[in-house]
Amino acid sequence: MSLPEPPPARPPTWGQDPDPSPAPAATGRWTPVRAATCASAACLVVLLLGVLAGRPDAAVLGVAPLLLAVRALHGRPAGPVRARFEAGDVDDDPDARGGGGRLHATLRLEGPGRWAAVTTTRQGRRGTEVLVRLADERRLPVVARTVRTGPQEVATAVVQGVGLDGASVAEPTPPVTRSTVVLPATTPLLDLPLPSRLRGLTGPHESRRPGEGGGLRDVHPWAPGDRLRRIDWRVTARRSPDLRELYVRREHAQAEAVVVLVVDSRDDVGPDPRTWRGSVAPRPQDATSLDRARQAAASLARAYLAAGDRVGLDDLGVRRRPVPPGGGRRQLDRIRHALALTAPEGEPAARLRPPRLPSGALVVVFSTFLDDESAAVAARWRTAGHRVVAVDVLPRLRASGLYDRERLALRMMTLTREDRMAELADQDVELVTWRDEPAVALRVLARRAQRRAGAGVAR
Amino acid sequence: MSARFGSEGFGAWVLDRIGPTARAPRGRGEQPEVTVRTGPAVPAAAVRAVLALAAVAAALVAGTMPGGVVPPGVLTLLVVVALAPAVVPRAPVAALLVLVVGVRVLLADPASPLVLAVLVLALHVVLRLAAVVARVGWRGRIEVAVLTDDLRAAVAVQVGAQALALLAGAVLGAGGAAGTGGWHVVGMLAVVGLAATAMVRPVRPWWRGQPDA
Predict the structure, then answer these.
(1) Pairing status of strand A168-170 against strand A30-32
(2) Three-state DSSP class for residue A14
(3) Kind plus residue range of the DSSP H or E element containing A290
(4) If I label B166, which of A91, A138, A166, B36 is the partner at 20 to 30 A Cα–Cα?
């Protein structure tokens, strides 16, 4: 019976690469190539046999390669070959115009060899293998194609110097790696849901409190504190022709919404369930759940901030200081950078209580809901009175190529997850799936809350 | 079979043991994940094909030389040996091809100048391309600058070798295999000279690396 694969001994590391080392070098030892040496020896043997047998036609067969081999033997290079990555230049990539999903770096080679064999890999998968002319120094643009965001490996390269005519080779350099952080892109959104309570006396939204700047709230008899310019003389003339009482027009106040985006970084799963163990990285053209969460959170942050609201960011998987709610363009940059650095970090500690949020904030939870924790946290926030929107960022799964046992496990997981999300809906948590048309789903949620003036959740 | 290899059968049993990467290979026509931008380059498979053609040409020309008919089985073996450098260039099979062709020329009648020129050129091409493709895999790419590197010296040496081949043909045509004592001496001097040049200790031994490294 086929045994299931053992669990990984440590968390997946394909998404977290250390910073590139300065310039690791090999020891500088060059060794003759066995095949070339044997070929030269064979040519010498044929020459000797031809001379001894009195056959000059046989003797001259290998003279040309033999002469070049002797020349290559004496021109054998010495010294180490160095390889290091530098920042890439987008101008080196003619295909980069108008197209995203490309990570650039420049591989710089230095060494005494004539050629260099460059082998690249990415996240453990084979990349490109090229044999290039070295000539002491060479700069090679390296391009990686991926739709992934966050901490990303551009490439890992191993370089081996090759001597004249391929007669000698240097020791391969230690692997050099280039990593970068890819900021999440944003997608335009339509109307957005608002929290149950708006805050402050300024902002883009009309609140239910009396104030200034909003629409007409009511017409009320003048009271001390009302400004004289608020007096509505037409209503006053109609209701109190003798001017015994003055009437003022009262308006709704303007207010801003506080939105807290909560990303569940504990899961980073792709559409292929076979990669969920973490031992194999998802394919570069497959956006994982965390990529979708980053894109969704960045899109919402951009839309809310553009409307003038305050947006904060928290992480369910890692306990670190959250990005407090704020507004403006720089807040969007802060949130995008924080989202890009959000990644699974080992075994997450169990939370005793959900993170604290500003009162009346709209909470948007981005999660795969593959376990109970994120759903439980969302339900507790809803119980505490927050309006909670749960965004399902699990990509559409690919079941093709799965074994029967894996298909069965996937089916069981899907059923459990559907039950969990149905329970969330019962607890008045609004669900949005970030797949086909998330903007439409968010607009539906937004219109559901616009039944009364002054925003808020319909109760 | 099901009891031994599980419900998915032998294929799944093997793939489980190879590793998870074996189940998700890169699709055909899919661009590689990482590309290195170089100068004009050719696929290594094309260079291997040229290498195979040159080697097979050398083997067939040597095998069909007059003087002693080569049985079809041996000729097939010759072609297999000729294909080996293109398949496993890191193994010393190109040396085997040189030895086989050399022995065949020794056993055959004296070669005509045209045949000799073809053999001299083909063996040189085989050894040069084998040294190149040995450094890169089947899916790799080879810069054209690598193939043309030091081409002037290679052409000069090849022209000299062709001149020597013409001279050898003339010597054989004039005096036959026997009674050519003059070139014997020259040949032995060449062997000794090349061996001594190869074995002389270099000024800076390569096995010690760079002094300041």
Answers:
(1) antiparallel
(2) coil
(3) helix A289-307
(4) A166
CA distances from A446 to A188, A191, A375, A440, A443 (A): 15, 6, 22, 10, 5
Domain ranges for chain A, please list them.
Answer: 77-181, 208-253, 258-448
Compute the CA torsion angle A256, A437, A412, A12 (nearest 10 deg): -70
Pick the more confident residue, A46 or B206: A46
pLDDT of residue B113: 85
Please tell me the predicted confidence (pLDDT) of residue B26: 54
B57-98 per-position pLDDT tens digit: 999 999 888 877 788 888 899 999 999 999 999 999 999 999
The SS3 of residue A255 is strand
**Whole-angstrom distance, CA of residue B76 vs CA of residue B3:** 45
Contact between chains at A117 and B178 (C-beta distance less than 8 A):
no
Q: How far apart are CA A308 and CA A254, in angstroms?
A: 11
Position A400 scores a pLDDT of 82
Chain B residues near residue A62 by CB distance under 8 angstroms: 98, 102, 123
Query: Which residue is listed with tokens 């050398």?
Result: B58
pLDDT value at position A283? 84
Kindly report the pTM of this predicted structure.
0.76
List the one residue out of B109, B124, B123, B125 whose CA is nearest residue B169: B109
Q: Is the ipTM of this complex over 0.85?
A: no
Tens of pLDDT, residue by residue over A43-53, are 989 988 888 88
Q: How far is CA B122 from CA B51, B80, B94, B97, in A?
A: 9, 16, 12, 11
Report the DSSP beta bridge partners of residue A102: A145
User: Of the candidates A251, A332, A43, A286, which has an alpha carbon nearest to the alpha carbon of residue A149?
Assistant: A286
Residue type, A454: G
The span from the CA of A373 to the CA of A276, in Å, is: 19
Measured between alpha carbons, how far is A401 from A275 in angstroms, rounded to an integer?
12
The CATH superfamily of A258-448 is von Willebrand factor, type A domain (3.40.50.410)
> Are A456 and A197 a contacting pair, CB within 8 Å?
yes
The sign of the torsion formed by the CA atoms of A433, A436, A438, A441 equals: negative
Instruction: Decide: helix, strand or coil at residue A178.
Output: strand
Q: What is the pLDDT of residue A458?
A: 40
CB A203 within 8 A of CB A327: no
| Residue B56 CA neighbour count, 13 Å, CB half | 12
Residues A67 and B156 sit within 8 Å (Cβ to Cβ): no
Distance CA(A65)–CA(A255), nearest Å, equals 85
For residue range B106-148, list pLDDT tens digits in order.
888 887 888 899 999 999 999 999 999 999 999 999 999 999 9
Task: Nearest by CB to B134, from A2, A33, A45: name it.
Answer: A33
Collapsing DSSP states into helix, strand and coil, what is residue A315?
strand
Helix A63-74 and helix B113-133, axial crossing angle in degrees, nearest 10: 30
The pLDDT, as a whole number, for residue A300 is: 95
pLDDT of residue A139: 92
The token pair that represents A288 in the structure block = 């994982």
Beta strands in B91-184 (DSSP E): 141-143
Mean pLDDT (chain A, rounded) = 84
Across the interface, whether the CB atoms of B35 and A143 are under 8 A apart is answered yes
Helices B113-133 and B151-175: crossing angle in degrees, nearest 10, is 150
User: Which among B93, B142, B198 has CB closest to A73?
Assistant: B198
Q: Do A28 and B204 touch (CB under 8 A)?
A: no
CATH fold of A77-181, please?
Answer: Immunoglobulin-like (2.60.40)
At A326-350, the pLDDT tens digits run 998 899 999 999 999 988 887 777 7
| Parts of chain A with a pLDDT under 70 | 1-27, 90-100, 449-459
